[in-house]
């Protein structure tokens, strides 16, 4: 589950170990503590090897330090480690869930977004790319979410996600999944995503261009759309039909839609017969390696009785 993966992630960060945590090495942890038993009033406890939070923080930031964070660490890693130095009590128990507005759990083997995710009451961005999520229940998503990225999973059905979707969601990333049209098109409307600005459906198995567009037309705030990698993107009039059908769209497949292009395709949306779901793919073999050319065989005289060697090759393509 996502909650279990997050707990393992925290353990791996070592938020309780030097120079983080509530250890005696952190001078700020002693503030407000009672005097040790037997100490006289006004007498301060001598603590060996205590450091100021600033000095401990420098151990995380100095690249020559053995406790330094790696240069490629995420903003999330750095935030949690530094908070564990400056305010270590905040990373204890359920308090740590209140720290994060963005949670990035990429390639962590997550299969389920469980109910424990609701503890992230401030969460606005959830990145779950490259996991093993096939279904996601929207009831387990914080209502504060604005970005949900599920790229490179195995999502094939949007029904559970659309039962109680986060109302403020602005970006939904479903690229490189297993969505098939037209059964999933009905979940891509304003009824479910009233504030959606960006939608990534690339590299799925969507085939019904006209049916999909008829649903996307209801997304009044949609400005960025990615559909490349779907079978419907092979239709010759694919881009022109989308540009004319979605006049508020600004970027399609990472390419800006300018006024000249919009003028060029004007009226195409009113000619659906031009967007037939038929394509032709031409494959040309430019070069083949690893097989002997016919000229490599010895040319025999016409009167020779030696056996003639012929070679033939069978080439297959998998789409």
Q: Any overview of this molecule?
A:
This protein is of the alpha/beta class and 319 residues long. It is 17% helix and 7% strand. The chain has 6 helices and 8 strands, in the order αααβββββαβαββα. It has helices at 2-13, 53-61, 75-86, 209-216, 238-245, 259-264, and strands spanning 102-104, 125-127, 147-149, 171-173, 198-200, 224-226, 251-252, 255-256. An 8-stranded mixed sheet has the order 1-2-3-4-5-6-7-8, with helices on one face. The radius of gyration is 30 Å and the shape is extended.
Structural class: alpha/beta
Q: Report the radius of gyration as a whole number of Å.
A: 30 Å
Amino-to-carboxy terminus distance: 34 Å
In this structure, how is the largest beta sheet organized? 8 strands, mixed
Distinct helical segment count: 6
Count of DSSP E strands?
8
Question: Fraction of residues in helices?
Answer: 10-25%
Envelope shape: extended
How do the strands of the widest beta sheet line up side by side?
1-2-3-4-5-6-7-8
Protein name: LRC43 protein
GO cellular component, one term: cytoplasm
InterPro entries: Leu-rich_rpt, LRR_dom_sf
Organism: Sclerurus mexicanus
């Amino acid at each position: 589950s996502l909650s279990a993966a997050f707990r393992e992630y925290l353990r791996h960060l070592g938020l309780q170990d030097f120079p983080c945590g509530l250890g005696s090495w952190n001078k700020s942890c002693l503030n407000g503590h009672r005097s040790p038993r037997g100490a006289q009033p006004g007498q301060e406890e001598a603590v060996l090897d205590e450091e100021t939070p600033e000095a401990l923080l420098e151990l995380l930031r100095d690249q020559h330090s053995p406790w330094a964070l790696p240069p490629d660490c995420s903003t999330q890693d750095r935030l949690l480690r530094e908070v564990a130095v400056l305010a270590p009590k905040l990373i204890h128990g359920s308090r740590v869930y209140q720290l994060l507005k963005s949670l990035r759990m990429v390639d962590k083997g997550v299969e389920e977004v469980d109910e424990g995710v609701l503890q992230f009451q401030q969460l606005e961005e959830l990145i779950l790319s490259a996991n093993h999520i096939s279904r996601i229940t929207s009831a387990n998503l914080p209502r504060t979410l604005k970005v949900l990225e599920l790229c490179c999973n195995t999502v094939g059905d949007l029904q559970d996600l659309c039962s109680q979707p986060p109302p403020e969601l602005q970006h939904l990333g479903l690229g490189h999944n297993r969505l098939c049209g037209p059964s999933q098109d009905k979940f891509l409307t304003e009824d479910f995503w009233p504030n959606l600005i960006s939608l990534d459906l690339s590299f799925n198995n969507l085939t019904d261009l006209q049916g999909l567009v008829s649903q996307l037309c209801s997304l009044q705030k949609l400005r960025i759309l990615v559909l490349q990698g779907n079978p419907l993107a092979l239709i010759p009039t694919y881009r022109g039909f989308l540009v004319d059908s979605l006049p508020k769209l600004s970027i399609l497949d990472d390419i800006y839609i300018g006024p000249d292009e919009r003028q060029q395709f004007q009226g195409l949306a009113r000619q659906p017969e031009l967007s037939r779901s038929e394509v032709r793919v031409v494959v040309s073999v430019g070069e083949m390696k690893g097989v002997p050319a016919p000229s490599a065989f010895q040319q025999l005289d016409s009167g020779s009785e030696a056996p003639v060697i012929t070679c033939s090759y069978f080439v297959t393509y998998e789409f």
